[in-house]
Design brief:
Blueprint lengths: L2 H10 L6 H8 L4 H18 L2 E4 L1 E6 L25 H13 L4 E6 L7 H14 L3 E5 L5 H10 L3 E3 L7 H7 L5 H13 L3 E8 L6 H14 L3 E6 L16 H14 L19 H5 L5 E2 L8 H4 L16 H11 L3 E3 L11
Parallel strand pairs: 1-8, 1-9, 2-3, 3-4, 4-5, 5-6, 6-7
The chain binds S-adenosyl-L-homocysteine (SAH).
GO molecular function: 4 iron, 4 sulfur cluster binding; metal ion binding; transferase activity
Organism: Velamenicoccus archaeovorus
Protein name: [FeFe]-hydrogenase maturation protein HydE
């Protein structure tokens, strides 16, 4: 067996893999890279199956109170058109997703300090009483009481990406936020019984391979139910607008090594992976990912939710994503799985 294959065996078989081993996998080149992707794909098939889960995303508000250096929704981006969908609009989008056969909706927005938690609790209750949908929230850092309120209203899951586990890089990118508070939010979410997702951005200016290694070890230690990994995409109206985009091979490697290390988390082929010059979501699905996220944000809001530029499917109408995803799945000999796709780690 080649040295690289035994390295893969060692990392796949360990509960606390060695930092040097992970770094060596991230440094794979040439034929090693293909062996890395193949191993991640084998582990994905064995643990998660061949079905590709669909999570409908509804980007219900572009309002944001934070100033993340990379994000187009940052509050300093004053030209951005801000919107918040009303309850009826959100429910219509969720019903449209439900009628496509989808059983999970992700409600995402900027981190809006003026968002009324009781209003969102009512929206969650309306979705839960009118549909069979699992509800996932992705609305940023909130006090424990608010997370508890939403959980009580029926929210099942929460996504809060750590973005980077390097505390000094985190501080530089998030001038008005606190790394420890984000960790604390993730702890509280798990304690409240949310299926919890985190994740990272790959290719952030100043980020090193050691940082990416620490991100993967963090995902392993926290045993997240879901892990989203995507490239940094430079937004011209942010302080990082002149930086280069993240490298797709680096993203695919982090994805593959994460699948090998944390074998049982749900991992999307993110929209960001699909929004570089080419769409790389098929490559992500062949390197460990098992989830796609069709966009059900209606126009004109969809175009206003500009986290990064050239976002995939920006001008399409809601519902167009699902047939496209069916085609993507069959192109790689897989199929779409229309189940809720709960965490493998919990009994629901
Ligand atoms: N406000 C919410 C999530 C909304 S943004 C929160 O705080 O959790 C959703 C995700 O988009 C972020 O977690 C971040 O990882 C990603 N993102 C934002 N700007 C990006 C950029 N320029 N390139 C790549 N990913 C970006």
């Amino acid at each position: 067996m080649s040295k690289f294959e035994s390295l893969l065996d060692r990392v796949a078989g360990s509960d606390a893999p060695d930092m040097a081993d992970i770094l060596a996998l991230l440094n794979a080149s040439g034929a090693q890279t293909q062996a890395l992707y193949r191993r991640a794909d084998d582990i994905r098939r064995a643990r998660m199956g061949d079905g590709i889960l669909l999570r409908a995303i509804v980007e219900f508000s572009s309002r944001c109170s934070r100033d993340c250096a990379y994000c187009g929704l940052r509050k300093a981006h004053r030209q951005l058109k801000r919107y918040r969908m009303n309850t009826a609009e959100i429910l219509a989008s969720v019903l449209e997703a439900a009628s496509s056969g989808i059983k999970t909706v992700v409600l995402q927005s900027g981190e809006d300090d003026t968002l009324d938690p009781f209003w969102l609790a009512d929206v969650i209750r309306a979705i839960k009483s009118g549909t069979q949908m699992a509800v996932t929230l992705s609305v940023g850092e909130k006090p424990q009481e608010v997370y508890a309120l939403w959980r009580g209203a029926g929210a099942d899951r929460y996504l809060l990406k750590i973005e980077t586990t390097n505390p000094s890089l985190y501080r530089r990118l998030h001038p008005d936020m606190d790394f420890d508070r984000r960790l604390e939010c993730l702890r509280v979410l798990r304690e409240l019984g949310y299926q919890t997702g985190s994740g990272s951005i790959v290719g952030l200016p100043g980020q090193t391979a050691e940082d990416l290694t620490q991100d993967i070890l963090f995902f392993k230690r926290c045993d997240f139910d879901m892990i989203g990994i995507g490239p940094f995409i430079a937004h011209p109206d942010t302080p990082l607008g002149l930086e280069g985009d993240g490298d797709i091979q680096a993203v695919l490697k982090v994805l593959a090594v994460t699948r090998i290390v944390v074998n049982n988390a749900h991992m999307p082929a993110t929209t960001a992976v699909g929004s570089l010059e080419e769409d790389h979501r098929l490559a992500a699905l062949k390197s460990g990912a098992n989830v796609l996220m069709p966009n059900f944000t209606p126009q004109p809001y969809r175009q206003a939710y500009e986290i990064y530029p050239h976002k995939r499917c920006l001008t399409e109408t809601s519902g167009a994503c699902v047939p496209c995803m069916e085609t993507m799945a069959s192109a790689i000999g897989r199929c779409v799985n229309y189940s809720r796709g709960d965490s493998l780690k919990i009994k629901v």
